[in-house]
Write a structure and sequence with these properties.
This protein is of the alpha/beta class. The protein has a single domain, classed as 3-Layer(aba) Sandwich (Rossmann fold), CATH 3.40.50. Helix 3 packs across helix 5. The chain is globular, with a radius of gyration of 19 Å. The two termini are about 15 Å apart. About 40% of the residues are buried.
């Protein structure tokens, strides 16, 4: 069973950016192979990693349901055989990691199906990998859908505002309410201004009950690379954001994965 790390939090807080940095970090530390799962319908983890996506799990769902309806499944193959065969094609091979992308399902019903494929695929593939990194969609729906079950480490990512911290605290509450199997939950405050956390924010963190893993500064280079369409994993390792996030991984994650 792979060590599973998931990122959660509101849209735009930096989940995908942090997931990308994590995958790059793990590959460099040779804590690989890593299976990266982009579970956000607005998939863009591949861009952060600099990989092209050809087939998503939603495409597979679409293809399977059409072939199944028309009786066009390859002869001798059951629907499950065919899904598994297509899944092999959907695995994008990067340097030190593989990437699976859920993609955008066509309708509400399809969503569950694509999610089902995703869950089965990650469960089945998980043994072949050292670490599983799940980049979740914005919001907390994925928690109630339990896409992210058996998580060893969850990072709740927040913007640097009181509201942001309160939203991150909801992650903790939901995990408790739904009795989810999340072994460790840590807060990461992203895009922190140069002057650091204000007293108000510190107080909000305190009352959230969340453990603070660390903070990541606002880094113009991240914006710059993003706007130019350069994969963020190509950022220099000593730029502010990458340096800070790596310190967090060194402190919180490294020994846990190695153990
Ligand atoms: N530390 C940072 N400094 C500057 N920009 C950042 C930082 N972290 C993320 N960003 C930018 O914020 C935007 C949202 O980040 P993203 O990772 O896509 O968020 P999410 O996945 O939570 O929606 C992106 O344009 C990204 O480049
Ligand atoms: Mg994202």
């Amino acid at each position: 069973m792979a060590y599973t790390v998931a990122v959660a939090g509101k849209g735009g807080t930096g989940k995908t950016t942090l997931a990308g940095f994590l995958i790059d970090y793990l590959a460099e530390k040779r804590l690989s192979p890593v299976l990266a799962v982009d579970a956000d319908p607005n998939a863009n983890l591949n861009e952060v990693l600099g990989e092209d996506v050809e087939i998503t799990l939603s495409d597979i769902r679409e293809d399977v349901s059409i072939k199944n309806r028309d009786g066009n499944l390859p002869s001798g193959m059951t629907k499950t055989d065919y899904i598994n065969y297509k899944l092999q094609q959907a695995i994008i091979e990067g340097k030190g990691f593989d990437l699976l992308v859920m993609g955008r399902p066509e309708g509400p019903g399809c969503y569950c199906f694509a999610n089902g494929i995703l869950r089965e695929a990650t469960d089945r593939l998980s043994d072949n990998y050292k670490v599983l990194v799940i980049d979740n969609e914005a919001g907390l729906e994925h928690l109630s859908r339990r896409t992210t079950k058996n998580v060893d480490m969850m990072f709740a990512v927040s913007e640097c505002s009181k509201r942001g911290i309160q939203a991150a605290a909801r992650v903790k509450q939901l995990i408790e309410e739904l009795n989810l199997d999340v072994k460790e939950l840590y807060l990461i405050v992203n895009r922190v201004p140069e002057e650091g956390l204000s007293e108000d924010i510190k107080a909000a963190i305190e009352s959230s009950g969340l453990k603070l893993a660390g903070t990541v500064p606002l880094d113009e280079m991240v914006f710059e690379y993003d706007n130019k369409g350069i994969p963020l994993v190509k950022l220099p390792k000593d730029c502010k954001a990458v340096k800070s996030i790596r310190e967090i991984f060194d402190k919180i994650l490294l020994s846990q994965i190695k153990a």
